[in-house]
C-alpha cells in the first residue's frame, strides 16, 4: 500500500524534472557559452579561413582540376604541395592528409581531413577508446586519436624536420577538421614532447588549428596547451559539445535526435563541479574561437561575430537543441562563415584607419593579453581543484619555472606563481630581521635607540 501511495509523488518529481529540463533547454542557446568572452581580432583570426580552404582541398583528387572549390578557389599553389596521402597510403591508420609549404604566409602546414562516412578504418580510429583508457602527459586523451597522431608524426617526422630546418623563419602549423582536428591536437602535444625529433624547433613556432574538434583531452591538458592549440567552433556544432565517449557519436549517426535528447537530460542533471573534477572527462582542446551568427528566437543568419577565450568552467558543456547542430559541423560552412567574419574584421579596421605601426603594437598587445589569459586560466583550474592542473612550460614572455617549482606544483596542485610570491615575502622578512656582518653571516639587527 505504501508503495502505491508513493507512485504519485515519484510521478510528480519526474514531471517537475522534465519540465525544468525543457525550460532550461528552451532558454539555452549557443551564444550563452561565449557571451562574456572577448572579441577576436583580424590578426589572430586570419589563418582560420585560409586553413579551412586548405582542409577542403584535401578532399580533391586532382588539385590542378578541382571540382569542389569554394568561391574564389582554394587559394593555394599546387606546386607547393610537398606530399599527399590517401586512405590506401595511410593503411587506415589515419585520415588523408597533405603537407603544404605556404611561402606567401611563411607557413609549413600539415592538413588532416575529417571522418569519411564510407571508410570503416575511420570508424575504427573513432571507436578505439574507453573512458580513462589512455594516460598521457599527466592527463587523459582519446586512445584512437593519439595512436593516429603518433603514426602521422613518426611517418612524416623526417619530412617535417627537413622543411623546418630549410625554412627557419616559417611556422609549423598542424590543422584538422572533426576527427582530423582531434588527431592534429594530439599530434601537437606529442610533437612538443619530442621537439628533438623536429630539429629542436622552438615551441612558439608550433601551433594547431582544430576546426570543429572532437573532445580528445582532459581539462588540465586542454588548458595547459592553449598557447599552441586553437579550436574553432561554429555556433551550435554538436561534436565539441558531445560529452559522451566518442563511440556514441557513431551511434548518433543513426539516431542523433535520440542521443542528443538523452545527453541533454544527463548534462542537465549532472552537477558542473562533479564534471570538472572528473580527470577522465575529455574536452575540446586549447583556446576556443566561437563563431556566433544566429540569435535566439530570430530567423536567418546575422553578421558573424568571433569570440575567444581560454575558459575552464563553461567549456561547451551542454549540447544545444538546434536544427543546425549537424550542419554547423560541416567544414564548408565553417570556411564560409569564418571568411565572412574575417572580412568584417578587416572592414572595421579600414574604417578605423589603423596605421601599420599601430597594427604591430596591437599584435604585441594581443600576445600579452593571451599570455595573461593563459595564466588566469591555469590559476582558475588550480582554484577549481582540477586534477593535475599546473603549468609545465613557458608561454610567450612567461618566466621559466625551476625544476623544484614544477615538481611541487604537480604534486600539490599549487599555482607556479605562488612560489615566486612566497619567495619574495620570505626575502623581505629576512631583510627586516637580519643584517650581514663582515664575515658574511646573518646576525639580528640591533634595535634603533
TrEMBL record:
The keyword Thylakoid does not apply. Residues 10-75 form the Mono-/di-acylglycerol lipase N-terminal domain. Pfam families: Lipase3_N (PF03893), Lipase_3 (PF01764). InterPro entries: AB_hydrolase_fold, Fungal_lipase-type, Mono/diacylglycerol_lipase_N. GO terms for molecular function: hydrolase activity. Keywords: Hydrolase. Coiled coil: none annotated. One of its GO terms (biological process) is lipid catabolic process. PANTHER family: ALPHA/BETA-HYDROLASES SUPERFAMILY PROTEIN, ALPHA_BETA-HYDROLASES SUPERFAMILY PROTEIN. This is Fungal lipase-like domain-containing protein.
Amino acid at each position: 500500500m505504501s508503495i502505491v501511495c508513493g507512485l504519485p509523488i515519484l510521478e510528480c518529481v519526474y514531471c517537475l524534472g522534465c519540465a525544468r529540463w525543457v525550460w532550461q533547454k528552451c532558454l539555452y542557446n549557443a551564444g550563452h557559452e561565449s557571451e562574456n568572452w572577448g572579441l577576436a581580432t583580424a590578426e589572430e583570426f586570419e589563418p582560420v579561413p585560409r586553413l579551412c580552404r586548405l582542409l577542403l582541398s584535401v578532399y580533391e583528387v586532382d588539385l590542378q582540376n578541382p571540382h569542389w572549390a569554394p568561391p574564389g578557389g582554394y587559394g593555394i599553389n599546387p606546386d607547393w604541395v610537398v606530399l599527399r596521402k590517401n586512405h590506401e597510403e595511410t593503411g587506415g591508420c589515419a585520415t588523408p592528409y597533405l603537407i603544404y609549404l605556404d611561402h606567401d604566409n611563411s607557413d609549413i602546414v600539415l592538413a588532416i581531413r575529417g571522418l569519411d562516412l564510407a571508410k570503416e578504418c575511420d570508424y575504427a580510429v573513432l571507436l578505439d577508446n574507453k573512458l580513462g583508457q589512455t594516460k598521457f602527459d599527466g592527463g587523459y586523451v582519446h586512445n584512437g586519436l593519439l595512436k593516429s597522431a603518433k603514426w602521422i608524426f613518426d611517418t612524416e617526422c623526417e619530412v617535417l624536420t627537413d622543411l623546418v630546418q630549410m625554412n627557419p623563419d616559417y611556422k609549423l602549423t598542424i590543422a584538422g577538421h572533426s576527427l582530423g582536428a582531434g588527431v592534429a591536437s594530439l599530434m601537437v602535444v606529442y610533437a612538443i614532447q619530442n621537439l628533438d625529433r623536429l630539429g629542436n624547433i622552438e615551441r612558439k613556432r608550433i601551433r594547431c588549428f582544430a576546426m570543429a574538434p572532437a573532445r580528445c583531452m582532459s581539462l588540465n591538458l586542454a588548458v595547459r596547451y592553449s598557447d599552441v592549440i586553437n579550436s574553432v567552433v561554429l555556433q551550435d556544432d554538436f561534436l565539441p559539445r558531445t560529452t559522451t565517449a566518442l563511440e556514441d557519436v557513431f551511434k548518433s549517426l543513426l539516431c542523433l535526435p535520440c542521443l542528443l535528447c538523452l545527453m541533454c537530460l544527463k548534462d542537465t542533471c549532472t552537477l558542473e563541479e562533479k564534471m570538472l573534477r572528473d580527470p577522465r572527462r575529455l574536452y575540446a582542446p586549447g583556446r576556443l574561437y566561437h563563431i556566433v551568427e544566429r540569435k535566439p528566437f530570430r530567423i536567418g543568419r546575422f553578421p558573424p561575430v568571433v569570440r575567444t577565450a581560454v575558459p575552464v568552467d563553461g567549456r561547451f558543456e551542454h549540447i544545444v537543441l538546434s536544427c543546425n547542430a549537424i550542419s554547423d559541423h560541416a567544414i564548408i560552412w565553417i570556411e564560409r562563415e569564418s571568411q565572412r567574419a574575417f572580412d568584417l574584421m578587416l572592414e572595421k579596421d579600414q574604417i578605423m584607419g589603423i596605421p601599420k605601426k599601430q597594427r604591430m603594437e596591437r599584435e604585441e598587445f594581443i600576445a600579452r593579453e593571451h599570455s595573461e589569459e593563459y595564466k588566469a586560466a591555469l590559476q582558475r583550474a588550480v582554484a577549481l581543484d582540477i586534477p593535475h592542473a599546473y603549468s609545465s612550460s613557458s608561454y610567450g614572455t612567461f618566466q621559466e619555472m625551476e625544476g623544484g617549482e614544477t615538481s611541487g606544483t604537480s604534486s600539490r596542485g599549487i599555482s607556479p606563481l605562488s612560489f615566486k610570491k612566497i619567495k619574495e615575502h620570505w626575502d623581505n622578512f629576512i631583510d627586516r630581521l637580519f643584517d650581514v656582518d663582515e664575515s658574511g653571516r646573518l646576525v639580528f639587527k640591533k634595535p634603533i635607540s
